[in-house]
């Protein structure tokens, strides 16, 4: 049969009622006009009218009755993501109303609703009686994992809502819940007022509790989620508020609790973030963190932090300039720290400019910065345990820094590098009996280095790299004693081996003459395996007494710095760094390893530190952390997290999770054990369970469909 193509507004006067408002388009294998004026299309028939598209085997239009009759298989799509499959249908001329028999409604390729008959009231509403709805694949002769049976259902495609009357939730066709009235969102709806997935937990601190979040849509750009949690030990109301603006977003999250852990006290927390992109190219961000007591965040499993930070930041980054202004308020939750002697109010400002001098060549960096810190203590002699260390002082620092560097390439590939820095800082110190109120510091640095990059290509295609480097540097500084508050912890690594100042801030300066040596190497194999390593050390004419023992930088000679990284096509990555004082004597070590495959996500970390009184560590510490995600079956995922304090041989955290997820259900089980490290906290064991009927809830996860049967 030759296929005919017809793309026109139907000219028959008998069919004017069908196409009165909008033009319709028809494709069919055969089109004929019967003697009584009836239009009949047969074969592979497709009709478009507005956003509605229908495919059928036969379509008949009787102008005297004003009715379209379709025989199937029939497929109707209305432009909203809704698909109706049926055997027979009688529709109005504009395709918006009618009766469809032996039909199924498919919503966003996720939810299907089966009914003996579906009535399309208009282009917006579809109504069905004695229906079954599920998002599971329905194979021939098999019962879906879950389904909702209802006496009547109405689908509002405009509001994207599904209404059920006298509904039953069935698991493997066994009734488990009855709802006289039930409303669920259309899967294509991203935000809708209603209940979210409830969660059942039991813990040694809060007992058995159930949390039932309720999402409220306040408008197109605002919403709030209320999460009441009830148990025998606590009554808690959690909230999360979001407000999106044209240039940014504000989020607030918190909770209010009355519990038996601290009877008679109001408890809770409030966290918030704000992010805005201003028209001038600046970014304005804010952070709010507050809690009623140090134990609340741990007991209610909110966040693992030991210091609260409230801040406002204004910044702009360009290719050659960076500006940042930050106001911060800190509050420590640690038992060993007093907030009266900690810098609670801090103001930071920094401006950086990069240029490329035409006459000199090289790179010139200019920087100006401001730092102020305030402590509530008013004593000039306070210190821990009534010692002689002063820690309740206030400071103001204004600094300027100029840095210049340039390289020259010599014959044979040798590279000579030159760098210099000039720094000036003005300090104002209050309430410190050992430090002058006003102090000016000027420091200058210069370095000359030589390196020789070498490379060799092997016959196998592997590329080997080797680069020895030596640098002679000197730093001089003129100032009276200055309190060190921004460089108390100094890390010696491959990133600062050849820097003038290895401290992270301005307060600590490494003066004197020194020789820095390093050897970098690596090899890249054709199979994408990459291995790199670096060795370095520092030799000084004067002993450096301002660094702690664990930093590896003290004395005339520093510790050996050893670093390596490995990456393989099998998904294995390894990064290791160690400080070696003498042969076999490690002062600091860190190892991070990961393994990624289609089924495994494994991450392991080890860190070890020797005892160091200057860092308030009387004994050596070491820890091992392991995190493992294992997809052992297509629908099953296990998660494991383990932290072990290897210095004392005791675990500090254990967490296990098991998730089953397919196209129609997500079941998540978790178990955890956390060991307190503070006298104000207690050990905590917790179990959690949540069940989500995928497909109906908003924010549906994109779960891989492993089964292929059924209509979806």
Major sheet size, sense and barrel closure: 26 strands, antiparallel, barrel
- The pLDDT mean sits at 85
**Tally of contiguous helical segments:** 1
Give me the oligomer status.
Answer: single chain
- Architecture per CATH nomenclature, i.e. the level-2 architecture of the domain at 1-96: Sandwich
> Can you give the helix content as a percent range?
under 10%
CATH H level of the domain at 1-96: which superfamily?
Answer: Lipopolysaccharide (LPS) transport protein A like domain
- Could you tell me how far the N terminus lies from the C terminus, measured between alpha carbons in angstroms? 32 Å
How many beta-strand segments?
43
Envelope shape: elongated
Radius of gyration: 35 Å
Q: Which CATH top level class of the domain at 1-96 fits?
A: Mainly Beta
CATH topology of the domain at 1-96: lipopolysaccharide transport protein A fold
Extract low-pLDDT stretches.
1-21
Strand content: over 45%
Briefly note the structural class of the backbone: mainly beta
């Amino acid at each position: 049969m030759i296929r005919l193509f017809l793309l026109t507004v139907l000219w028959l006067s008998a069919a004017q009622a069908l196409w009165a408002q909008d033009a319709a388009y028809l494709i069919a294998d055969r089109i004929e006009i019967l003697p009584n004026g009836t239009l009949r299309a047969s074969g592979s028939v497709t009709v478009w009218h507005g956003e509605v598209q229908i495919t059928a085997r036969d379509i008949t239009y009787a102008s005297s009755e004003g009715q379209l009759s379709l025989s199937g298989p029939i497929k109707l799509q209305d432009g909203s993501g809704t698909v109706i499959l049926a055997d027979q249908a009688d529709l109005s001329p504009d395709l918006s109303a009618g009766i469809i028999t032996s039909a199924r409604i498919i919503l966003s390729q996720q939810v299907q609703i089966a009914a003996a008959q579906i009535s399309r009231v208009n282009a917006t509403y579809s109504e069905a009686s004695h229906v079954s709805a599920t998002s599971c694949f329905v194979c021939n002769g098999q019962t879906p994992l879950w389904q909702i049976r209802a006496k009547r259902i109405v689908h509002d495609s405009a509001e994207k809502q599904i209404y059920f009357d006298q509904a039953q939730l069935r698991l493997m066709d066994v009734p488990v819940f009855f709802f006289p009235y039930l409303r669920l969102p259309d899967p294509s709806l991203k935000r809708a007022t209603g209940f979210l997935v409830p969660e059942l937990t039991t813990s040694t601190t809060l007992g058995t509790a159930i949390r039932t979040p309720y999402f409220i849509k306040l408008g197109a750009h605002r919403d709030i989620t209320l999460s009441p949690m009830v148990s025998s030990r606590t009554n808690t109301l959690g909230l999360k508020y979001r407000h999106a603006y044209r240039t940014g977003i504000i989020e607030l999250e918190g909770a209010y609790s009355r519990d038996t852990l601290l009877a008679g006290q109001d408890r809770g927390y409030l966290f918030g973030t704000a992010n805005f992109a201003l028209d001038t190219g600046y970014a304005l961000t804010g952070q709010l963190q507050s809690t009623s007591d140090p134990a609340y965040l741990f007991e209610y499993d909110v966040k693992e932090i030991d210091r609260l930070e409230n801040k406002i930041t204004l910044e702009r980054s360009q290719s050659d300039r960076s500006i940042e202004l930050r106001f911060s308020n800190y509050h420590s939750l640690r038992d060993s720290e007093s907030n009266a002697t900690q810098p609670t109010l801090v103001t930071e400002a920094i401006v950086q400019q990069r240029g490329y001098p035409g006459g000199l060549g090289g790179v010139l960096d200019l920087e100006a910065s401001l730092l102020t810190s305030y402590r509530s203590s008013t004593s000039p002699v306070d210190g821990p345990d009534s010692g002689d260390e002063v820690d309740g002082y206030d400071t103001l620092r204004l600094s300027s820094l100029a840095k210049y560097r340039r390289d020259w390439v010599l014959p044979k590939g040798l590279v000579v590098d030159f760098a210099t820095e000039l720094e000036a800082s003005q300090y104002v110190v209050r309430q410190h009996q050992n430090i002058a109120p006003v102090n000016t510091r000027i420091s200058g640095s210069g370095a000359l280095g030589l390196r020789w990059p070498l490379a060799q290509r092997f016959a196998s295609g592997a590329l080997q790299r080797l680069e020895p480097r030596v640098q002679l540097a000197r730093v001089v500084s003129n100032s009276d004693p200055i309190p060190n508050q921004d460089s108390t912890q100094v890390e010696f690594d491959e990133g600062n081996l050849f820097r003038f100042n290895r401290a992270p801030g301005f307060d600590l300066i490494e003066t004197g003459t020194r020789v820095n040596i390093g050897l970098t190497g690596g090899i890249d194999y054709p199979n994408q395996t990459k291995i790199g390593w670096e060795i370095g050390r520092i030799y000084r004419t004067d002993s450096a007494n301002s660094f702690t023992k664990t930093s590896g930088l003290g004395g005339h000679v520093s510790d050996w710095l050893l670093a390596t990284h490995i990456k393989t096509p099998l998904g294995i990555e390894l990064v290791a760094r160690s400080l070696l004082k003498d042969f076999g004597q490690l002062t600091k070590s860190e190892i991070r390893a990961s393994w990624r495959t289609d089924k495994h996500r494994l991450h392991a970390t080890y860190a070890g530190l020797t005892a160091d009184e200057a860092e308030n560590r009387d004994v050596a510490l070491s820890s091992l952390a392991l995190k493992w995600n294992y997809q052992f079956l297509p629908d099953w995922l296990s998660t494991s997290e383990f932290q072990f304090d290897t210095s004392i041989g005791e675990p500090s955290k254990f967490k296990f999770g098991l998730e089953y997820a397919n196209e129609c259900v997500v079941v998540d089980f978790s178990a955890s054990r956390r060991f307190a490290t503070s006298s104000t906290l207690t050990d905590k064991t917790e179990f959690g369970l949540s069940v989500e009927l995928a497909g109906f809830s908003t924010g549906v996860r994109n779960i891989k469909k492993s089964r292929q049967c059924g209509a979806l």
